[in-house]
Amino acid sequence: PLEFINGGHGVKNPLATEANARQREEEKNKQVLVSEDDPTKFVCRICSKSFSLQRLLNRHMKCHSDVKRYLCTFCGKGFNDTFDLKRHTRTHTGVRPYKCNLCEKSFTQRCSLESHCLKVHGVQHTYAYKERRT
Predict the structure, then answer these.
(1) Over the range 25-63, which residues count as b (16 or more CB within 10 Å of their CB) and which as e?
(2) Which candidate, 7, 32, 33, 103, has a CA 20 to 30 Å from the CA of 58?
(3) Distance of CA 77 to the CA centre of its chain
């Protein structure tokens, strides 16, 4: 049976089984490297991108997986992170949660709002922590 997520706009990929999850975890652990230059940095062995926290590297490692854990119900595109699926879903639904305080424009992504504020209004837009990932 399909398990819906993201308000029904996404579904857990039935091909991403528990066995696959364990295998991915084992592979991920093989690919974690602590930087020799800076022991507080964690480096991806696949692409050499570095992270300040282990959990950020763990999240990043999902992008190298062939099996996507979550699928968009509109177009079938796969994602390994529910936030990425949620952000993608806005391209189909037209939801624009990031509103400019200085004009009537709104955006599907925070970075688009920040870019707009800087280019159009000359203002650097900053968010409180909880407003970041809505």
Answers:
(1) eeebeeeeeeeeeeeeebbbeeeeebbeeeeebeebbbe
(2) 7
(3) 14
Distance CA 32, CA 49 (A): 11
Please name the residues in contact with 99: beta carbons below 8 A apart, sequence gap of 6 or more: 105, 106, 107, 113
Per-residue pLDDT tens for 30-44? Answer: 555 555 666 668 888
Alpha-carbon gap, residue 5 to 99, rounded angstroms: 25
Task: Count how many Cα atoms sit within 13 Å of the Cα of residue 59 in the half-sphere of its side chain.
Answer: 10
Residue 83: both structure tokens together: 């936030």
Q: How far apart are CA 100 and CA 106, in angstroms?
A: 6
Report, as an integer, the average pLDDT of 18-27: 61
pTM exceeding the 0.70 threshold for the entire prediction: no
Q: How many helices (H) and strands (E) does the chain have?
A: 4, 9
